[in-house]
Give the backbone structure.
Amino acid sequence: MKKRNSFVILCAVFSMGLLLGACNTQKPANQSDVPSDSQGSEVVASYTVAFNSNGGSDVASQTVKKGEKATKPANPTKEGFTFGNWFEDSVLVTPYDFNTPVTSSFTLFASWTKNTEPPIPPEPVTTDYYAVIGAEKVAMTADTERIAENQTGNYICTFSSISEGQTISFLNSDEVAINNYGPDLDYESYHNNVLNDGGTYKVHNDASNVKVTFRTWEDGGYSFWIDGYEDATPIITEEYYLYYDGVYTKMSIDESASLVQNQLAQYHVGISPVVAGSEIYFADSQQIKLTNIGSDIEDATNKNNIDTVDGRYYIHTGCDNDGLIDFYLKKWSDGGYSFWVTGYQSSVDPVDPSTPHGPEGSQLVSWYLVGKGSLWSYDWDIEHGVQLYSNPDNAEDKGCILSVTFAADDIFKVTDGTTWFGYEKIDTFVSDDNYGLKNFASTPDGFDGQNIKCTVAGTYDIYVNKTGTFWITNYQA
């Protein structure tokens, strides 16, 4: 019986303990959820901001109270790299803003940019080279002190004497000819003593105790320099021709010419008669047209007697059988050419298509007046057509041209090379007061549409609107 009573008492005590514990877990009505220290003061949460320098120098973590901002640390360092920024993610997509309040712990990641390493200067080439002038071959020695940027080698040798017209070449250590080389550019105060004779290099003039410099470059090419230049007329073996009126006329070397700096030679030929508006060009010994050529610059007192149209050259002022037009061709050290033609007269207008002009403030457009008759040396050819100008008074117009002189029975259209326009409103266009121009109902050389025919010779201004409709004014009887 005693044991039973003891068990009952023990259970009662245990139940009383549970009841008291439950009562103690309830918070006073005025107690906060915010953590507090032993004295009852509130404790603000803190977070850790870590820094992953991605291989750079270590950066200490920061403990930041909730709602405050992390401090941007000093940039870490990494050999061969430049620090970029701190990012929120390891793939370096989102940069971190240090003005953002911290609300949790996180890690920032560093980005880096690889430094560009300075190029390692190439080792000087030690292969021997030979210079050959005329029949003499001389071994060259390396001169490493004179290697410039992008240059891999510098070689020198000396010739006791060289003669005007001797050929120049260079060999490698196996005495095999080198092909991809050329003379160094001229300097202001003195010239390379070299003549480029159609790709074969020759001595410009005699010289003694001459130093020859041969340079190798990173791109695999070579260049050379020969001392001893004097301003003297070199030996010229080339031939040049003037093309005029279907005939090639050989030019002669102009030994009386005073050559200027960088000019290698001058050639001359005189022709009579010469017709204004005729095309000319210059050709080499194979009668192949020279392309690297240009008209000499005009000056105030002596103009080149040439009109240039689309890269072709035409005589500005002609002469009859009693006159003579002189043609001069100049050759230059850079391989180019220029030319000069005498006989210019400002009172004589050119006959070629550059005579017409646009209104003030206009610009050339891609439409051309082409046709058949007095104005064209080649029928219906855009290259020899009259190029139109923009109309400053109406930007939508295809173009216009002023002061075009037609002979009776000339016919024409306007084209951009693809679309051809004539005047299709026959009923309103054919009239006695339309300045002698009328629609001509025939189709030349397979071109579709109508042509415009000049029935009365005269000078006209022509405007073409956006639909291809013509307006002709300014008839001069």
